[in-house]
Design goal:
The structure is a single chain. By secondary structure, the protein is an alpha+beta fold. 21% of the residues lie in helices and 23% in strands. The chain contains six helices and twelve strands. A hairpin with a 2-residue loop joins strand 11 and strand 12. Helix 1 crosses helix 6, helix 3 packs across helix 6 and helix 5 crosses helix 6. The longest helix is centred in the last third of the chain and has 20 residues. It starts with a helix and ends in an 18-residue tail after the last strand. The structure holds a DNA duplex.
DNA sequence: AGTAGCACCTGATTGC
DNA sequence: TGCAATCAGGTGCTAC
């Protein structure tokens, strides 16, 4: 569910609230939320408890807390990461309250992290960080860090070129200033898959999910099933710019949400859903040409596109196709 | 190597 | 009304 703009909204919110705090204790309410860690709940708690959160970083939809020794000073590199993925329905919620006054956890709360926060806005010295996840595809994880291939900062919210080992195979995201555009476009144009499946491939350019894939393809007037190898360099470039543009715009409005399954760390919804042109508009008129927006399953994902504006083949390089 | 298919979950909605 | 089928914003493993 949460794509780059939503995850960045959460990351920025977390950064402002939990940077500098120390993990006092952890309450895992559903063991499977730390299933990636071989040692399970005990190991997770042991590795995280007592650590100081130095920063909250993100690449694409993958997020991590940089952990340092509690008495660390200066800018020494993190020694470990508490990584997190929101999956389809994950949320972080922060309560600025004394631990014993925190509200009862939400029924879908999978983990509750108690933080010692000397600078808590309320002055209580405490924060409670809840990881809530209805569908349980999200997770928390603890792991070591590896270096980026290019030596540049690993992603948003960090100036270190270190990222969690499990994130090393994820490409830089569409809004990362260190994204290698030439190489990314070349990889987008390779292979037989439909272009929508390719732009959802997080190992090439990360951060694009099902909503923004449909929006970017609509903006760039490209059919979701156009084979990657049939994309011109110019079309690929237009598509990347469209994805960057739509996600930056969504980010400026706090992300997209249709319901309470996506909210920021304060429990508030974003407003971008009212700006969507294709996603969720099956059967409605395309705002550009008036044709009905189609809805079908492509690559296992619900896909929305305008059959008139978005041709399966480039108009000058192949037969026209109604997109049926 | 590249790609398709499915598995992993819970809850809301739809259709019979 | 009741129950089964379907669908949801993601990732990663397996098998071809």
């Amino acid at each position: 569910m949460p794509e780059l703009p939503e995850v960045e909204t959460v990351r920025a919110g977390l950064e402002s609230l939990v940077s500098g705090t120390v993990v006092e204790s952890v309450e895992i309410r559903r063991d499977s939320c730390v299933r990636l860690l071989a040692g399970g709940v005990p190991e997770f708690c042991a590795l995280v408890t007592g650590e100081r959160i130095r920063a909250v970083a993100r690449r694409g939809k993958f997020m991590w807390f940089e952990l340092v020794a509690p008495d660390a000073t200066g800018a020494e590199p993190p020694r470990e990461a508490l990584s997190a993925h929101l999956g389809m329905s994950g949320q972080f919620r922060v309560h600025d309250t004394r631990w014993d006054q925190a509200p009862d956890p939400h029924p879908h709360c999978r983990a509750r992290i108690f933080l010692r926060a000397t600078n808590a806005p309320s002055g209580s010295g405490h924060l409670v960080l809840d990881f809530i996840d209805q569908r349980t595809f999200g997770y928390l994880h603890t792991e070591g860090l590896v270096s980026t291939a290019d030596g540049a900062p690993a992603g948003a919210g960090t100036h270190h070129s270190l990222l969690p080992a499990s994130v090393a195979h994820i490409g830089r995201d569409a809004l990362d200033p260190n994204l290698d555009v030439e190489q990314s476009l070349a990889r987008w144009r390779r292979g037989s898959r439909g272009i929508k499946q390719v732009i959802l491939d997080q190992s090439i350019v990360s951060g694009i999910g099902n909503i923004y894939a449909d929006e970017a393809l609509w903006t760039a007037r490209i059919h979701p099933e156009r084979p990657a190898h049939a994309m011109s360099k110019r079309q690929a470039s237009t598509l990347l710019v469209a994805a960057q543009s739509v996600m930056a715009s969504a980010l400026s409005q706090g992300g997209t949400s249709f319901d309470s399954l996506y909210v920021n760390v304060n429990g508030e919804s974003g407003y971008f859903s009212r700006s969507l042109e294709a996603y969720g508009r099956g059967g409605e008129a395309c705002s550009r040409c008036g044709s009905a927006i189609r809805l079908a399953t492509v690559g296992g994902r619900s896909t929305h596109w305008c059959a008139r504006c978005q041709r399966r083949w480039a108009p000058r390089s192949g037969p026209l196709d109604s997109g049926a």
